[in-house]
């Protein structure tokens, strides 16, 4: 068996990106943080997708992560990134643990629509609540790093490095999980639930676990994006945001833990340039890109890299 | 000593009676053949014992423990396993991966989250299982692309990885050519003999029943009409009239 080099490659690419950070314009650093953080949400979708489940409601946990950070600052004065990310992961994981009892019993379209329904319920609550910022949301200050409060530009670079560290840790943990017996149950459940039950393992529990993992990743992604943007609003949980994550998941493919990040960076770059050069028709550019991708690379961008980096 | 005790087992689907007052006791290391015409209740019985269906009435005890209406995974974890008439495998995975995943679940228990599946001990054991069931040559073939005979053997191999005490095989040779039937049964029984597993198998072919079963139970219309040594049951006038006669009639019509 050849050793899987996905994690060393990801680590190498992230180190290069971190070293390059001080030498590139700040908008590149910003797009880097946002796209990599959104890639975390898509990484969670990958775990679900391999089980045959598509969640149209990951924006729920993405928003919960963001609001956990925002509310911790607003009502507790917390600005530390380490605390923020842990808090976001705990909140998203706890909510997913509760909702998972219900969702783990559903499949296919029912799972997709029910997950979307929960996201839209949160949207309704956020829009109607003055104490949660209503439609405008609220701003978050420049984060601190274990007590250090650097200037805005340095903070952005430090946040990029922190995001890169989170991504490396998430990729390692997800890769390790997908390589385990429980991880292999993803494709096994997609193929034949009856056999999994008759091997003595609970399909519901397996799906519940994967749902919580996906939610934690989405929560951390939401926290990192909010810290970088410096603002949260209900749009984070709106269905268009959820659709964007599914879009990037299709764009990326599910063959490797690196795929969501490649897909997410390309998506953000394509969108940024499309909005700059074709401000009135940028949606059409993205739609055409997805159409071409589905036609010529039905297994996503990662299929270009062949089987060498498949999660085993 | 009886490891399976079934008392007064009934199953109704609305007004249809699929199983009616089934009483059976199976001893350790027996190889019990279950015969009956189509719709006689054989698969319903297997489904009731393995938790796929919940009985309307009656009790099922395994190893002295009441397992009536328990969910399939609880029954499997108590030491019963089964194969299916239509093999239940992971179609997009290779034969090796199918057995490896089954073995991983059996070894890693309820929280198999962190330990890698492709570790040396499991890989070696998986290859041994494939060898024992005669499907090592198909090791790297995708399950959806192999013959029905290989899928049947894989299904049974997966059912045995957690070393059950009782194994129920639902028509292990159905969909397999006449020439291959004995070959497949030889492989199955050879593999199970070394594990000392008590076996209940549903079968239509009387030659296979006569050769492999140490005891035969005949089902008709949801009830047991004969239970005893293979030749006794095959010679039973009711069995000859309702089961063997019916099979001969169907063969003649075909």
Protein described:
The complex is a heterodimer of chains A (312) and B (254). Chain A is mainly alpha-helical and 312 residues long. Chain A has a domain at 32-238. Chain A is 71% helix and 1% strand. Chain A is built from twelve helices and two strands, in the order H-H-H-H-H-E-H-H-H-H-E-H-H-H. Chain A has helices at 6-20, 26-49, 58-76, 81-103, 108-128, 152-179, 181-191, 193-197, 203-229, 239-252, 259-277, 282-296; strands spanning 138-139, 231-232. Chain A has a two-stranded antiparallel sheet with strand order 1-2. In chain A, helix 2 (26-49) packs antiparallel against helix 9 (203-229). The N and C termini of chain A lie close together (10 Å). Mean pLDDT of chain A is 90; it is low at 308-312. Chain B folds into two domains: 1-79 and 164-254, Rossmann fold (3-Layer(aba) Sandwich); 87-163, no CATH class. In chain B, 40% of the residues lie in helices and 25% in strands. Chain B contains nine helices and ten strands. Chain B has helices at 42-49, 72-78, 95-108, 120-132, 148-160, 178-193, 206-212, 230-235, 237-253; strands spanning 2-13, 16-27, 31-36, 57-62, 65-66, 80-83, 166-170, 198-202, 215-220, 223-228. In chain B, strands 6-7-8-3-9-10 form a six-stranded mixed sheet, with helices on both faces. A four-stranded antiparallel sheet of chain B has the order 2-1-4-5, with helices on one face. Chain B starts with a strand and ends with a helix. Classes of the chains: A mainly alpha (312), B alpha/beta (254). Chain A binds chain B through residues 1, 176-177, 179-185, 187-188, 190-192, 194-202, 209, 312, and chain B through 50, 71-73, 76-77, 81-82, 84, 88-93, 97, 100-102, 104-108, 110-118, 158-159, 161-162.
């Amino acid at each position: 068996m050849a050793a899987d080099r996905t994690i060393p490659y990801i680590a190498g690419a992230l180190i290069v990106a971190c070293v390059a950070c001080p030498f590139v314009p700040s908008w590149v650093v910003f797009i880097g943080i946002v796209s990599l953080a959104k890639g975390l949400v898509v990484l969670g979708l990958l775990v679900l997708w391999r089980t045959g489940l598509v969640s149209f409601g990951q924006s729920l946990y993405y928003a919960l992560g963001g609001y956990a950070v925002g509310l911790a600052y607003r009502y507790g004065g917390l600005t530390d990134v380490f605390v923020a990310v842990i808090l976001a992961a705990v909140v998203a994981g706890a909510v997913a643990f509760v909702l998972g009892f219900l969702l783990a019993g559903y499949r296919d379209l029912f799972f997709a629509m029910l997950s979307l329904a929960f996201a839209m319920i949160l949207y309704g609550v956020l829009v109607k609540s003055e104490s949660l910022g209503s439609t405008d949301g609220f701003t978050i200050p420049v984060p601190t790093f274990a007590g250090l409060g650097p200037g805005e530009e340095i903070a952005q670079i430090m946040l990029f490095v922190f995001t890169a560290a989170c991504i490396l840790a998430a990729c390692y943990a997800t890769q390790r999980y997908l390589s385990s017996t429980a991880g292999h149950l993803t494709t096994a459940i997609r193929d034949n639930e009856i056999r999994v039950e008759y091997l003595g393992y609970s399909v519901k529990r397996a799906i519940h676990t994967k749902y919580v993992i996906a939610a934690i990743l989405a929560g951390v992604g939401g926290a990192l994006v909010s810290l970088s943007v410096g603002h949260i609003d209900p749009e984070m949980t709106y269905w268009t945001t959820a659709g964007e994550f599914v879009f990037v998941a299709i764009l990326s493919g599910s063959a490797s833990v690196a795929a969501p990040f490649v897909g997410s960076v390309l998506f953000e770059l394509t969108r940024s340039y499309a909005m700059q050069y074709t401000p009135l028709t940028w949606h059409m550019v993205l739609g055409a890109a997805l159409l071409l991708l589905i036609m010529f690379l039905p297994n996503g961008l990662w299929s270009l890299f062949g089987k060498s980096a498949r999660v085993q | 000593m009886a490891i399976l005790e079934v008392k007064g087992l009934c199953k109704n689907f609305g007004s249809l009676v699929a199983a009616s007052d089934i009483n059976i006791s199976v001893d350790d290391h027996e190889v019990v053949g279950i015969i009956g015409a189509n719709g006689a209740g054989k698969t319903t019985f297997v489904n009731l014992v393995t938790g796929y269906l919940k009985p309307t009435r009656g009790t099922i005890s395994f190893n002295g423990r009441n397992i009536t209406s328990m969910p399939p995974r609880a029954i499997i974890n108590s030491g019963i396993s089964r194969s299916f008439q239509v093999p239940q495998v992971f179609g997009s995975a290779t034969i090796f991966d199918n057995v490896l995943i089954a073995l991983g679940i059996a070894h890693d228990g309820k929280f198999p989250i962190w330990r890698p599946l492709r570790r040396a001990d499991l890989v070696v054991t998986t290859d041994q299982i494939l060898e024992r069931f005669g499907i090592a040559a198909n090791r790297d073939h995708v399950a959806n692309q192999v013959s029905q005979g290989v899928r049947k053997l894989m299904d049974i191999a997966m059912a045995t990885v957690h070393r059950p005490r009782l194994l129920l095989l639902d028509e292990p040779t159905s969909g397999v050519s006449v020439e291959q039937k004995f070959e497949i049964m030889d492989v199955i029984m050879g593999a199970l003999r070394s594990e000392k597993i008590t076996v209940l198998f549903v079968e239509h072919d009387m030659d296979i029943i006569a050769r492999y079963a140490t005891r035969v139970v005949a089902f008709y219309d949801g009830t047991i009409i004969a239970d005893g040594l293979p030749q006794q049951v095959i010679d039973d006038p009711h069995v000859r009239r309702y089961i063997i006669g019916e099979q001969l009639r169907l063969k003649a019509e075909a």
